[in-house]
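Weekly puzzle thread! Below is a chain. First person to post its structure in token form gets bragging rights.
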Amino acid sequence: MTESKFASAETKFADTSINYTKVVETPAFSQLLRKKRNFILPFSLFFLVFYFTLPVLTAYTHVLNHPAFASINWAWIFAFAQFVMTWTLCILYTRRAAGFDRLIKTIQKEVTELKGDQ
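Winning reply:
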């Protein structure tokens, strides 16, 4: 009983072998990598700079100690802005990921066509 399960699994996986070298060479894959890099790199750098600005400014300067509204100083506003920034980046990435998913579908179609040519 177990031998037949393994034999059918091996046959199933043998039929779905993919030449990943050809996948990497497809234009859609290159486009996916370029779009992801062009989104992720600048937003990650922005996040890191924005995130570490608060501790640096509070530790080494008095810029954020001035009151903004009543007894709330700028440090509190900057700290709250980090929460807003994090949620905003998450929302932006989620929306952009839908475009990445469309490119992945295109890549899957190209891979299926490449497999058919073999």
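Puzzle host: Confirmed. Bonus trivia for everyone else. Helices lie at 2-15, 20-24, 27-60, 74-117.
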